[in-house]
Design goal:
Elements (H helix, E strand, L loop, with lengths): L8 H8 L5 H7 L1 H10 L19 H8 L5 H7 L1 H9 L21 H8 L5 H7 L1 H9 L9 H10 L5 H7 L1 H9 L12 E3 L4 E3 L7 H8 L5 H7 L1 H9 L23 H9 L4 H7 L1 H10 L19 H16 L7 E2 L1 H8 L3 H10 L5 E3 L2 E5 H10 L15
Antiparallel strand pairs: 1-2, 3-5, 4-5
Helix pairs in contact: 1-3, 2-3, 4-6, 5-6, 7-9, 8-9, 10-12, 11-12, 13-15, 14-15, 16-18, 17-18
Length: 399
């Protein structure tokens, strides 16, 4: 059936009786549904029931919500559910205040803006619900936080306390709201000290100001002593960036360059010690460098303490490996080489040596995650890749 036929109310009713709910009616025959909705006939279709889970707005609820707005477009944009419920039931004509004339910016007064702002709790709500009046009051410099309920509530609560510190402890939520909106400077009844350096109000109790930190820092000759003996004052000064303005008798030390752990330097440190424990305690960096590079076995003057527990796993594994090799070949103990030695002997780079190892061309022994090479491994590698001279076989004797 054509849409024009549904303009007749009787035919529209006939079509609507085929369905049980408003949703079925709208999905089954959109033309009939929207014609009935625009003419306000849906309120008389008692056989149509809304879905159970769908909330139905009553006349009183729609009326109360519509009073927040002055135009139908604003009501539809800000409260669409209430607007369409009122439109569906034909209540929009009863809300005469929605057809008010548009007030020109020149005719808007401060009393009008103040009266409208009193309906909302804060600036953001006022801006969201009535943007034209908010813009007018903001641009003309009329907008004041005292118009809103949040400011009034925060002001009344703050009057129960004597300082910002007490206000923060006993009414933290109100304190956060006042601090976020920068209202604390207005609450002059809070007995606080004004810090000229930071240009903020600070509580007399429990907060370090610039003058307090400066007086405390003057008691100590160096910055290190100030840090150790007055930690809270130091942290407050560091947090606010005041440390550069405090003058100390002893200037802070500039960090020097770290010494390179060369073989000569490590050996000089080791010679000043008599035991391994003393060497490890004196310079842990030199001790680790000696273990990594295999220099520790050369320091024969270093002895272990008699009652000391077992030493480094690396040293034990290395000694065990040497003893096993001596048992296998008692006539000629084998010498072991590291990666650096092999690279120097073969004149190859580190990546090339890795290719030889991954390809299985050079044999090696792993101890504590470190690779060691025997002379026989190197000899085998060179022997397997040996290319014999062929010039003498052809009878050539001269070059």
């Amino acid at each position: 059936m054509k849409a024009k036929n549904y303009l007749d109310k009787e035919r529209n009713i006939e079509e609507s009786k085929k369905y049980k709910t408003y949703t079925e009616f709208r999905s089954g025959c959109k033309a009939a549904y929207y014609i009935a909705s625009s003419n306000g006939w849906l309120s008389g279709y008692d056989w149509l029931v809304d879905n159970i889970n769908k909330k139905m707005h009553t006349y009183e609820e729609c009326e109360m919500e519509s009073k927040k707005y002055s135009k139908r477009e604003q009501f539809m944009k800000m409260a669409g559910g209430y607007y369409y419920a009122a439109k569906r039931n034909g209540w929009l004509d009863d809300f005469a205040w929605l057809d008010g004339k548009y007030i020109q910016p020149a005719d808007r007064t401060i009393e009008m803006c103040k009266r409208e702002a009193a309906k909302y709790r804060n600036r953001s709500e006022f801006k969201k619900m009535n943007r034209p009046l908010y813009r007018t009051s903001f641009n003309r410099g009329w907008l004041d936080d005292s118009w809103f309920d949040d400011y009034k509530e925060c002001e009344t609560v703050s009057k129960e306390y004597h300082s910002v510190h007490e206000f923060n402890l006993k009414a933290h939520d109100m304190y956060k709201m006042a601090r976020r909106n920068k209202w604390l400077s207005r609450f002059t009844w809070l007995n606080d000290k004004y810090d000229e350096h930071t240009k903020t109000h600070r509580s007399v109790k429990g907060v370090w100001t610039f003058e307090d930190c400066k007086a405390e820092a003057a008691k100590y000759p160096s910055r290190v002593e100030y840090y150790r003996k007055s930690r809270r004052s130091y942290d407050a000064a560091k947090r606010n960036g005041w440390l550069s303005e405090f003058v100390f008798e002893v200037a802070p030390k500039t960090p020097g360059r770290k010494k390179k752990l060369t073989k000569d330097y490590v050996e000089s440190v080791a010679k000043s010690c008599s035991t391994l424990k003393e060497f490890r305690k004196k310079s842990m960096g030199a001790y680790i460098a000696a273990c990594k590079n295999g220099w520790l076995s050369d320091y024969t003057w270093l002895k272990r303490a008699k009652n000391s527990p077992k030493g480094n796993k690396f040293e034990e594994a290395l000694e065990k490996l040497n003893s096993e090799m001596v048992e296998i070949c008692p006539e000629k103990p084998k010498t072991f080489y590291r990666d650096k030695d092999i690279m120097q002997m073969l004149q190859v780079s580190k990546s090339t040596l890795k290719k030889y190892i991954k390809g299985g061309y050079i044999g090696y022994t792993v101890v504590c995650g470190k690779r060691y090479y025997r002379e026989s491994d190197l000899e085998e590698f060179l022997f397997k890749n040996h290319v014999p001279a062929f010039a003498y076989e052809k009878g050539k004797t001269n070059l």
